[in-house]
C-alpha cells in the first residue's frame, strides 16, 4: 500500500515558512516551491515559469470565453504610445506620469568594443510603453466611428503592460505584467454604464466560480478612481492575512476619452455627439490572489478548475514484477481519467521515490493524487488522496492526512474523481467565504475600529462614512486602512444596513462602506 | 431565389486594385477591405483589427497544440533586456544593434503645462526592448540547470517583440509584431539538432496543412543565419507575384548562448559541459503569407481551417411574411451547422441588402455562403456559394460565379458543408502548389537566370552554387535575388539532382540551391 515515507526536500528547496511565522515570506516560499515564477535580471520584472503560466492559460480561457459570450472580440493595439497622445487626456496623463517607461532611442552601436545606445538614434518624439491603452485605442476608434450604426464597439486585448514600480512583489505588483483590457464605445451613457456593470459581473463570476475567491462588488471613492474615469467599479477579495486585494476593475469613462481624442458620432437624431466609453481589466495579479487565498503551509492549493494537472497518478513498486503490473494499471487509470476530459499526469519518472513525487505534487497544488501499489491491484482498489480537506478544529496533522485519503473499489474510485473535484472546488469557495466572515465586523466607533486592526488581526470593517479625501488620508495614516469599496445598497448584509454616523467625522451617513488594509 | 444584385461599395470602401495592375497596392487593399489591420499613430506599428486577430487566434491554437504535443510548455520572460545582457553574445548583439528600441527613462513630468520626459528619471542601465529573447532566457536558464537531469528544457513564449524597421508593410514587416519563440536546452548536440529539425517540420506541417501554403525546407547560407546561430533552418513559401517569403525559422545555436551566459551542466559522466540550444519562431507575418498566397481581386481568400467564420448564412426576403419564414429557416440552418462544430454566422442585420452582405463576406474571405430565400424554403433546398473555385482557363467572371454555386436538397446540402470545406482547404494547397510549379525553373546559365527574372516574371530558380558571401551580394545587386535555402538532398526534385557548376563562378557544385527575389 502507498508508502507514506516522509521525503527530505531536495537540495535548493528549503521548504516553506509557515503563515503564522512570516506571511510575506510564506507567499514567496509557496511560489518558489510550486515553481510559479521568479525574479529576473530586470528590476521589477518577473519570469512566469511553466507551471505559473499554465494556470494563467486556464484562467485566460475562462475569461476569454465569457468575453466572447458577451459579444466582445479580441484585437491588438501598439505597445508604444507617442508622448503627445498620452498627454491628451490631462488627468489620465497626470495619473500615470510617475510610472511610465519611455523609449527615447532606436539603435545601439559599438564604441571601443562596448555596446552603447547610439546618441544619433534619438527619437523626435519619445514613446511611452503602454501603462494601459485608452489613449492609443481611442485614437484608433476615431477612424472606426462615424455614426450610431458603427456602435457599440466591443473589443478586448490580451497584452503586456508596464507600470514602473519601486516596491514589487511577484504577481501582485511588478513593473511588467500580463493582463487583458476591454475597451468599448457606446452611443448612450446608459448602455456604457450597463457594460461597466456587466463586465464587473463577469469578473465576480470568474473570481467566485473559477478562482473560488468570494468578492465584494462596489464603487471606488473619487480618490481611488482610475485616472480619467467618471466611475470605477471593483471586486475585492480577502486574503488569509485579512488584507484586501483588488482583483479587477471596470471603469465608466463617460465622454472623457472621446473628447480628448475627438471621437464624435452622428446619433439617430442626426446630431453629432461624443462617444461614451468603458474599460475594464484583470491581470496576472489574480494568480497572486489565488495563492494568498487558498494555499497552506505545505504549499500551493489550486481550485480544480485552474489546476494544469488535476490528478497525478503515482505508481509504487519494489520488484521488477511489481513494476510491470503497477505501471500497466497506472497507465490504464491515466487513460480512463483522460478520456473523462480530466488533466491527468502519470508520474512514471525513474529514480524518484513515491514520497518525493508526493512532495512535489503537493507543493504544486495538484488537487488529487492517486497512489497505485501491488496491494491495490490485488484488492482491485485505488487510493485517492485529496490535496486538502475542510478544517476540523484541534485535529492533528496526521489525522488530517488520514482523513484526506480514501480507499475505493476501482470502478467506484474512477467514477468518484469528477464529483470529488467539483466538491473540492466548492469547498475552497466555502472555506474562503467562512474565513472572510470570521474577519468581517460591523463597526461603529473609532475605538472598536482601532482595536480590530491593532489587536484582533483586522479584516473587513463595515463602517459608516461621510468623510472627504483628507479624512481618507487620515484613516490611512492612523490605521493603514482604505475604503475598498462602496457596496451596492442591495449587497449590504442585514446587520450593516441603515443610516448612521461617519466613524471618523460623526457626520450623518446614509450607507456603510468596507474598509481594510490592502495589498 | 438569391438576388445577385451588384452592390456599390459603401462610402470609404473604394474596392480593390487588381493584382495585375499593382500587386503592392492590391495587398493593402485586401487588408483594408477585410478589415484585418491598419497603420497606427506610432510609426511602423500596426493595429490588428478583430477579423485579423481572430485569424491569428486560430493559427495560434494550431501551433500551440503542436508545440504541446511535442512536449513544450509555455512560459513568459521579461519584455526588457538590460543592455549588458544583450551585449554578452557578441555576434547576436551586433546583428540586432541597428534595430533595438531602448528605454532610458521611467517617468514623465509636467513642465509649464507640457508633459515631458523627466530627466531625473534616467536609468542607470538602458533597457533594450526584446528583439528576440535568447539573452534574457539563457540568463534565466542558468538558475534552472545544474545537471543532465534538468535537461531537456522545452519552453515556448507567445509575445510581442520590437525590431525597429525603416520600411514597413502591414503583417510582413512592422516595428512591433506578435510571435512565438521556442527556446530549448539540451545535453547533447544531437538532441538539439533533432529538435531544430523537428520544429521546422512542425512549421512546414502548419504551413501546408493549415495555411495551405506549400513550402521548401532547408538551411540558410552563413550570411542569412540568425545572429548567434550555428545553423539556421527555414521554410520558404512562394507568393502570387513569384517572390519568396520566409515563413519560419528554426536555429541550432550550439553552445554559443550557454557560453556567453555561463550555463554549464554536470553530464552523465560527471563532467561540466556547456548546454546545447535551439530557438525557433513564427510570427504574424504568416497572416501576410496567407493573404499573398491565396487572395484574389475580390479580396481575402481564407483556408477554411483558419476562417473565423467558415459559413455565412444570409436570409433573403421582401415581405414581412417572407421575413418570418426565412429567418426561422436561416436560424435553423445556422444551429444545425453550429452543432456540427462549424463557425457559422447568421447575418440577420437589418437595413443591409443581401448584395451588401455578400460583398462584405466575400471581401472578408468567408469560405462558404448559404443564401436562403422564400423559394428555397418552398423547394426544400439550399443555395451554397463557394468563395472560390479552381481556375478554368478562359472562363468569364460570370461563368465562374455560376460554377461556384450549388443548389442542393436541404439535408444533402447540410451534409455537404464539411466535406466541401475540406475539399476547399485541399484545393487551395493544390492551387498554390501548381502556381509554384509554374514559376519554378531549373536553370544552368546566368543568361537564362537573367531572362527568368527580367522577362519571364521570375520565381524559384534551382541553380548550382559554389559562391561565397561576396558572390551572393553580386547576385543581389544584379538580380535582386538571394539564396532562399539550401534544400535537403532528398527533397531535391529529380530534374534538379546531381552535380554541376556554380551559375556565377563556374566552380564545381555538389548540389543546387533555390534562389528567388524575396519579401
Shape of chain A: globular
Q: Largest sheet of chain A, if any?
A: 11 strands, mixed
- Regarding quaternary structure, what we see is homodimer
The CATH superfamily name of the largest domain in chain A is Bira Bifunctional Protein, Domain 2
Sheet with most strands: strand arrangement of chain A? 3-9-10-16-13-12-11-24-27-23-22
Radius of gyration of chain A: 26 Å
Write structural notes for this entry:
Two copies of one chain form a homodimer. Chain A has three domains: 27-102 and 129-294, 2-Layer Sandwich (BirA Bifunctional Protein, domain 2), CATH 3.30.930; 309-420, Rossmann fold (3-Layer(aba) Sandwich); 440-516, C-terminal domain of ProRS (Translation Initiation Factor IF3, 2-Layer Sandwich). The two termini of chain A are 45 Å apart. In chain A, helix 2 crosses helix 6. In chain A, strand 25 and strand 26 form a beta hairpin. Chain A is globular. In chain A, 34% of the residues lie in helices and 26% in strands. With 519 residues, chain A is α+β, with helices and mostly antiparallel strands. Chain A contains 15 helices and 27 strands. In chain A, the strands form seven sheets. An eleven-stranded mixed sheet of chain A has the order 3-9-10-16-13-12-11-24-27-23-22, with helices on both faces. A five-stranded mixed sheet of chain A has the order 18-17-19-20-21, with helices on both faces. In chain A, strands 4-8-5 form a three-stranded antiparallel sheet. At the A-B interface, strand 2, helix 2, strand 3, strand 4 and helix 3 of A face strand 2, helix 2, strand 3, strand 4 and helix 3 of B.
Amino acid at each position: 500500500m502507498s508508502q507514506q515515507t516522509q521525503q527530505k526536500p531536495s537540495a535548493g528547496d528549503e521548504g516553506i515558512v509557515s503563515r503564522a511565522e512570516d506571511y510575506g515570506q510564506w507567499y514567496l516560499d509557496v511560489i518558489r516551491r510550486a515553481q510559479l515564477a521568479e525574479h529576473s535580471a530586470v528590476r521589477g520584472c518577473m519570469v512566469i515559469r511553466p507551471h505559473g503560466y499554465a494556470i494563467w492559460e486556464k484562467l485566460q480561457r475562462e475569461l476569454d470565453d465569457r468575453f466572447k459570450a458577451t459579444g466582445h472580440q479580441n484585437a491588438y493595439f501598439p505597445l508604444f504610445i507617442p508622448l503627445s497622445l498620452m498627454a491628451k487626456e490631462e488627468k489620465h496623463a497626470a495619473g500615470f506620469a510617475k510610472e511610465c517607461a519611455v523609449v527615447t532611442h532606436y539603435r545601439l552601436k559599438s564604441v571601443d568594443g562596448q555596446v552603447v545606445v547610439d546618441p544619433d538614434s534619438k527619437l523626435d518624439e519619445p514613446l511611452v510603453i503602454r501603462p494601459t491603452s485608452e489613449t492609443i485605442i481611442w485614437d484608433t476608434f476615431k477612424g472606426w466611428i462615424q455614426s450610431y450604426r458603427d456602435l457599440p464597439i466591443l473589443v478586448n486585448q490580451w497584452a503586456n503592460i508596464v507600470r514602473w514600480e519601486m516596491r514589487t512583489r511577484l504577481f501582485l505588483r511588478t513593473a511588467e505584467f500580463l493582463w487583458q483590457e476591454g475597451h468599448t464605445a457606446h452611443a448612450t451613457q446608459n448602455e456604457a454604464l450597463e457594460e461597466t456593470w456587466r463586465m464587473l459581473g463577469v469578473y465576480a463570476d470568474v473570481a467566485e466560480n473559477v478562482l473560488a475567491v468570494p468578492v465584494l462588488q462596489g464603487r471606488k471613492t473619487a480618490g481611488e478612481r482610475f485616472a480619467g474615469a467618471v466611475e470605477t467599479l471593483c471586486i475585492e477579495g480577502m486574503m488569509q492575512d485579512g488584507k484586501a486585494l483588488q482583483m479587477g476593475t471596470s471603469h465608466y469613462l463617460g465622454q472623457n476619452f472621446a473628447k480628448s481624442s475627438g471621437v464624435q458620432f452622428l446619433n439617430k437624431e442626426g446630431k453629432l455627439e461624443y462617444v461614451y466609453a468603458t474599460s475594464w481589466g484583470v491581470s496576472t495579479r489574480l494568480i497572486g490572489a489565488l495563492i494568498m487565498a487558498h494555499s497552506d503551509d505545505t504549499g500551493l492549493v489550486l481550485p480544480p478548475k485552474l489546476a494544469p494537472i488535476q490528478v497525478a497518478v503515482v505508481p509504487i513498486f519494489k520488484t521488477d514484477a511489481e513494476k510491470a503490473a503497477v505501471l500497466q494499471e497506472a497507465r490504464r487509470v491515466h487513460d480512463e481519467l483522460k478520456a473523462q476530459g480530466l488533466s491527468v499526469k502519470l508520474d512514471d519518472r525513474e529514480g524518484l521515490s513515491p514520497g518525493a513525487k508526493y512532495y512535489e505534487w503537493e507543493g504544486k497544488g495538484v488537487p488529487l493524487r492517486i497512489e497505485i501499489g501491488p496491494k491495490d491491484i490485488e484488492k482491485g482498489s485505488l487510493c485517492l488522496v485529496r490535496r486538502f480537506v475542510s478544517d476540523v478544529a484541534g485535529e492533528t496533522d496526521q489525522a488530517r492526512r488520514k482523513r484526506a485519503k480514501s480507499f475505493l473499489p476501482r470502478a467506484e474510485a474512477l467514477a468518484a474523481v469528477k464529483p470529488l473535484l467539483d466538491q473540492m472546488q466548492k469547498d475552497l469557495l466555502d472555506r474562503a467565504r467562512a474565513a472572510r466572515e470570521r474577519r468581517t465586523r460591523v463597526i461603529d466607533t473609532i475605538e472598536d475600529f482601532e482595536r480590530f486592526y491593532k489587536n484582533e488581526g483586522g479584516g473587513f470593517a463595515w463602517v459608516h462614512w461621510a468623510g472627504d479625501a483628507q479624512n481618507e488620508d487620515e484613516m490611512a495614516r492612523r490605521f493603514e486602512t482604505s475604503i475598498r469599496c462602496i457596496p451596492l445598497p442591495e449587497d449590504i448584509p442585514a446587520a450593516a444596513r441603515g443610516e448612521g454616523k461617519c466613524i471618523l467625522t460623526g457626520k450623518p451617513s446614509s450607507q456603510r462602506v468596507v474598509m481594510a488594509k490592502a495589498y
